[in-house]
Every structure is written in C-alpha cells, then in structure tokens.
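To the wet lab folks,

You asked to see what we're planning to order before we commit. Fair enough. Below is the target structure as tokens, and below that is the sequence we designed to fit it. If anything looks off to you, flag it before the synthesis order goes out.
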C-alpha cells in the first residue's frame, strides 16, 4: 500500500505492543495494552518520527536544504524534526509559539527546547495566537532570499504525506495483533494536529478493519478537533487513491479532558502520570499522553468501553516535556 511513496528510514520499527497488567488489574475493566510509539528511537522517540519518514523524504525529493516547521515552545514535533533534519544533513529553522504569557525557566529552556538546541535548530519565538502557517511562510521566504531551499513541514507533520506514517502504524499493529492472536476492540490515542488519528483510521479501513479509534483531545474544542481529524483523514485517503474511505462516524473524539487549555496541567493528568509510572514503570507526558490516559482511565471507571476485552493505548511519546513541567507536577 505504501511502497510507492518515498520514505527515509528514521524509526525503530515495529514498536513493541505490551500488556499493562498492573494498571488493568487496578482499574478492573478490559485488558489494557500499550503500543510503544514513545520508542520510535529518534531523539527519545514519539509519534512524529513515523510521519517524518514520509514528510522528510518529500522535502528531499523536492530538493530542499532547509526544513521549516513550527509548534509550541515545548513541541515534541519540533524536537523530532530538528533531529531528523540533522540526520538527513538538512538545516532546520523553526517557529516556536510562546503559548504561556509568563513561562517559568524550565518551560523556556529545558525539556524539548534544550534538545532542539542540541540538534542545532534555529529557533524563532513568536507570541501566542500568531498564525503559524504565515510565520512559517515568512521564514521560508527569508531562507530562500538568503539562497537556501526551504521546505515547510506543517505543524505536527499532519499533511497527507505525514499521516502515511500512521497508515503504516495501523498496518503494523494489525500484523502484531494477528501474530499474538490478540483481538483488539478499541484503540485510544491523544489527538492534536490530527494526523495520528487520521492516519490510523485510513490504515485500518484500507486494511478492511473496522476497529474503532478514540481520540482524546488536548486543546481544541470538540467540533474543531473532529473537523481537523476528518480533514486529514479525507486528504490522506485521497492521496492513497481511496477517497471516502473514512466516514464521519469513524471520527470519534472526546475533548472532555483538556482542562484549562493546551499544555495546562490537570489533576486527572497528574494522577494518570503517577499511575502509569508507579504501576507500570511507564513515563507519559503532561501535554498529550497524560491527558489521553486520564480519559482512558475515566472511561474504564465509567464502564465506557462496554464489553471490550482488549483496549490498546497508543503511547505517542513526549516524556522530554516532563522536565519542562518539573515545577508544575505533583509527585
Ligand atoms: C504531536 C503529539 C500528539 C498528537 O498527534 P497529532 O498527530 O498531532 O494529533 C500526541 N502525543 C504526543 C506526545 C505528541 O507529541
């Protein structure tokens, strides 16, 4: 299905699929599993690495020498893009949205920002609410004016090209489950720019699987998040030559666990972080996977997965942000 698309090898694949036995026992619901996309290998791992295998290949095919992208200050996408660019011998110039008015020192300088600097990325801060697409275009124009060949990778690499990484992940997961004689009833993932959930849905439906994917939102309001995922899913299906593969009914999102906003800690996120750490020795992150697991835990407690026997939590990475949130987490 994916052979005809250019791809650079960046990720350690397949990522493991592991049982979360102590967490499952504690919660008393379905058997919980974790798909370890925090272990994709590049620059401490995470979901963007799968997308960048396709997004960077597209940039290279187009003769780019400089990757332009954007994200919040503590963006995991920016960190993985900076590392991928370094590895491909490309320059990397990024727009970082200062999402908090008065960030602490750890948030400004530690976690992902420290790693962005190690990878040699050029960092350009902009205030909250900046149009990031326009800011990336401006940076691209600047790069071109200086004789460079810029290529813009959108926020979260959530283009049809980037989402192919999660089409691939869906096929990988189906193979893994089949080899283990495991019947998965439900996938749960954090959803932000939408490419992860969209790619999963396209990959599953293309493979003839009707497995449901629940996206737990981390910032946008419900209707906006649904629209984001649906738009990337439509584009990706079309790109694959399978238009209309994902229906409106397939796009299931719950934005009830965001709390105060993107990147703002919640008590349920903190609890989920501690449960994963203390029951499973598993590190989550405060912005995405902590809130997503909080949603999963709440749903298990409410009986929200019905008679599902096996639920897979997609771990999308992000643990470097723990250090940026050191003074905002209760341990
Ligand atoms: C980017 C990111 C997500 C969200 O993935 P999208 O494809 O943007 O929806 C989830 N978890 C982590 C840790 C991320 O960095």
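Sequence we intend to order:
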């Amino acid at each position: 299905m994916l052979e005809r698309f250019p791809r650079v090898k960046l990720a350690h694949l397949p990522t493991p699929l592991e049982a979360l036995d102590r967490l499952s026992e504690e919660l008393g619901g379905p058997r919980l599993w974790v798909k370890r996309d925090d272990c994709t290998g590049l620059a401490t791992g995470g979901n963007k690495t799968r997308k960048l295998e396709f997004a960077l290949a597209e940039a290279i095919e187009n003769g780019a020498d400089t990757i332009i992208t954007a994200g919040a200050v503590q963006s995991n996408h920016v960190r993985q893009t900076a590392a991928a660019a370094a590895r491909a011998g490309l320059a990397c110039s990024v727009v970082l949205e200062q999402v908090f008015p008065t960030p602490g020192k750890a948030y400004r300088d530690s976690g992902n920002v420290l790693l962005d600097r190690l990878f040699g990325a050029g960092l350009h801060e902009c205030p909250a609410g900046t149009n990031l697409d326009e800011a990336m275009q401006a940076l691209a124009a600047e790069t071109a004016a200086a004789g460079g060949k810029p290529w813009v990778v959108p926020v979260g690499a959530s283009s049809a090209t980037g989402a192919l990484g999660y089409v691939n992940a869906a096929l990988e997961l189906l193979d893994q489950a089949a080899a283990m004689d495991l019947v998965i009833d439900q996938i749960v993932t954090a959803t932000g720019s939408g490419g992860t959930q969209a790619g999963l849905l396209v990959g599953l439906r293309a493979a003839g699987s009707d497995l449901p994917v629940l996206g737990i939102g981390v910032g946008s309001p419900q209707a906006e998040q649904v629209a984001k995922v649906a738009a990337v899913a439509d584009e990706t299906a079309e790109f694959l030559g399978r238009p209309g593969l994902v229906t409106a009914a397939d796009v299931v999102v719950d934005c009830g666990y965001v709390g105060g906003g993107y990147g703002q800690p919640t008590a349920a996120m903190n609890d989920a972080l501690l449960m994963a750490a203390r029951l499973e020795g598993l590190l989550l992150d405060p912005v995405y996977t902590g809130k997503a697991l909080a949603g999963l835990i709440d749903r298990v407690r409410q009986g929200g997965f019905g008679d599902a026997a096996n639920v897979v939590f997609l771990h999308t990475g992000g643990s470097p942000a723990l250090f940026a949130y050191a003074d905002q987490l209760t341990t």
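Structural context that might help your review: The first helix runs from residue 21 to 27. Residues 46-47, 76-77, 156, 158, 190-197, 285, 288-289, 316-318 surround pyridoxal-5'-phosphate (CB under 6 Å).

Thanks,
Computational group
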